[in-house]
Amino acid sequence: MNLRCVRCVVLFCIPFGAGCGQLATEAPNVGTSRPGGENHAVVTSPGAAGFAPVRIGILPLTELTGSTGAGQSTTLHAFVTLLDAFGAQIKAPSVLRFELYEYVPRSAQAKGSQLFPGQNLDLTGAAENHRYWQDHLRAYEFELEAQVSRDKTYVLQVTCMTPNINGKRLSADYVLKNTP
């Protein structure tokens, strides 16, 4: 009787145990040819390159605050996130360039004249990188001064340059309105 119960348990568990090692959110790269003519699945991963930034984003927390009088300075609070190949928000050594443009409505090119000359922030050093990193947001937070007018819409462009992506630049645009 005990042997019969063991066989039932084993037969019941086989369908559920097969393939459990292949659970993943994305399909792995699988090759089936091996020397000697045997066909075995070989699973490869993206490796260390998968952890380098591949996309940049500007969070909706980004805003213009402070004085809104003509010719007075306003503070640009920018929240920037870097994402790796797996879609995770990461901290990475990089140089970020901030540019602010006038918004051109109903146009194929939303960026008008440049208002805020490109300002580079070097985050390649550990201390400087950590200074701007907000762990609870998994993003960088910056406060920059800008000369903008009240009740106007602008386009913020952030460009990321990092040694891990061999000269490739990642860029994101964000439309924001300066409201009093």
Provide a descriptive summary of the structure in words.
The chain has a single domain, classed as Immunoglobulins (Immunoglobulin-like, Sandwich). The longest helix is centred in the first third of the chain and has 16 residues, at 2-17. It has helices spanning 2-17, 126-132, and strands at residues 29-33, 39-44, 55-58, 63-66, 73-83, 89-90, 95-103, 111-122, 133-134, 139-147, 152-161, 169-178. The chain is mostly beta strands. The protein has two helices and twelve strands, in the order αββββββββαββββ. 13% of the residues lie in helices and 47% in strands. A hairpin with a 5-residue loop joins strand 1 and strand 2. Strands 3, 4, 5, 6, 9 and 10 form a six-stranded antiparallel beta sheet that branches. The chain has a four-stranded antiparallel beta sheet with strand order 8-7-11-12, with no helix packed on it. The model is unreliable at 9-45 (pLDDT under 50).
